[in-house]
Amino acid sequence: MGGGGSSTRRVTFEADENENITVVKGVRLSDSVIDRMKEPSSPSGRQQSQHRSSSGAVNDEELKKRIAEELALERARRDSEAQKRRLFGKLLERERISSNEHLTRAILRERAATEEERQKAQRFAKQLEEKDRELKKHDAYYKEQLARLEERSAQFYKVTTEQYQKAADEVSARFK
Fold this sequence. Notes:
- The protein is mainly α.
- It is built from three helices and two strands.
- The protein has a domain of 114 residues.
- The chain has a two-stranded antiparallel sheet with strand order 1-2.
- Strand 1 and strand 2 form a beta hairpin.
- The longest helix is centred in the middle third of the chain and has 115 residues.
- It starts with 11 loop residues before the first strand and ends with a helix.
- One of its GO terms (cellular component) is MICOS complex.
């Protein structure tokens, strides 16, 4: 009656004035259980009801046997339900563990992907910095070359202008 424990209970019965059992000490029974016990369900139960109708007395041993059977059936039903609950609990626990493992794997995959992206970004940043330094070197080189070319061009222009002026003066002096 009390669950999964294997403790033994002592049950006592009392009969009222009409020889009908109304009190079972130590065990609580619902009205439906008492009604089922009163109904004939087996050949011995039918004999008991015939005996009860003919003599008007209740066979205490037979009633005790039926109550014990009902209690055993109730205990078996409760044990079965408890076993089902334990099995269901185990299944739920396995499912929870499985989903936790799945979630953990997904988190680890995401962390790995994030780390890979971070490393890629660092690599690209270093490549960009290297290209930037290279561009600055090229920029400085080309500015230096441009300055040299402008200087040479200016010198060439000056020399050419001087030569032109000199040639123009010579031509003018010849034709005067």
